[in-house]
Amino acid sequence: PRRGHARSLNDQPEETRSFILEQRLLAFSKSGTRSQVHRPAYPDYIAVKRFNAEGEVIGEHGFLGLYTSPVYTERPEGIPVLRRKIERVRDRSGLDRGGFDGKVLGQVLASFPRDELFQSSDDELFNTVMGITHIHERRRTRVFCAATATGSSTPASSTCRASCSTPTCAFASRRC
User: Fold this and answer.
1) Does the pLDDT of residue 152 top 50, yes or no?
2) What is this structure's pTM?
3) Hey, which residues does 64 pair with through a beta bridge?
4) Is there a contact between 101 and 133 (Cβ–Cβ < 8 Å)?
5) Cα-Cα end-to-end distance for the chain
6) What is the dihedral angle through the alpha carbons of 105, 118, 80, 60, rounded to the nearest 10 degrees?
7) Contact status, residue 163 vs residue 141, Cβ threshold 8 Å
8) What integer pLDDT is reported at residue 137 of this predicted model?
9) For residue range 54-111, what is the model confidence (pLDDT) as tens digits?
10) Does 60 map to a domain?
11) Which of 15, 61, 103, 106 is most buried, by the most CB atoms less than 10 A from its CB?
12) Phi and psi based region of residue 110 (left: phi greater than 0; alpha: psi -120 to 50; beta: remaining)
């Protein structure tokens, strides 16, 4: 199809169809093509779904572009959609926010890559950050990879917690 023309839903890969038909008002993803303007990054895609009276997805308004720098420097709790997602993860964890593990979880969430915070489902985010929280101060390494929601070839960033002896270990990123 030519640029600017919609493709039939039936022509889309299964992962893309699932992403499009998902019953969430807002959905976040990455484009599979690097941006030609501003910086050579994969543009972000934000979908605002439209629903019929039966609650079925009947369309979407899509926005493609690059996030501005405050998205990456602002505390995640300062971005409403991320604040709500983080609250759901913290509540689900059952950890005392004032306790050691609760504080570790807070630090993991605060330093988690913004793109992955936006794109991860609640379940994916919960499983990853709890995995990172539970390996805190253990002498082992784990790699957490995230696939794109649409199954595109966009490389996903993975978070790896390396063995360390201090609580201020850095996160490493690599391409999956």
Assistant:
1) no
2) 0.67
3) 45
4) yes
5) 29
6) -150
7) yes
8) 64
9) 988 888 898 999 888 888 888 999 999 999 999 999 999 999 999 999 999 999 999 9
10) yes
11) 106
12) alpha
Q: Give me the number of domains the chain comprises.
A: 1
Bridge partners for 158 per DSSP: 174
Two tokens at 53? 């009276």
In-domain check, residue 53: yes
Of all residues in the chain, the percent with pLDDT exceeding 90 is: 35
The set of residues, in sequence order, having a beta carbon less than 8 Å from that of 94 and lying 6+ positions away, is: none
**Which position has the token pair 């919960």?**
126
Read off the pLDDT of each residue in 7-30 and give the average, rounded to a whole number: 78
Token pair for 170: 């850095």
Residue 55 CA: distances (Å) to CA of 10, 18, 23, 61, 63 = 20, 15, 8, 16, 22
In a domain, 20, yes or no: yes
**Which residue segment(s) compose the domain that 47 sits in?**
9-65
What own/partner pairs with CB < 8 Å and gap ≥ 24 does 78-84 have? Answer: 81/26, 81/118, 82/114, 82/117, 82/118
Residue 98 sits at the vertex; the CA angle it makes with 165 and 103, to the nearest 5 degrees, is 35
Closest CA to 79 of 25, 108, 105, 115: 115
Q: Are 158 and 145 in contact (CB under 8 A)?
A: yes
Q: How far is it between the farthest Cα atoms of the chain?
A: 56
Structural tokens at position 15? 């992962």
Q: Which residue has the tokens 């978070």?
A: 159
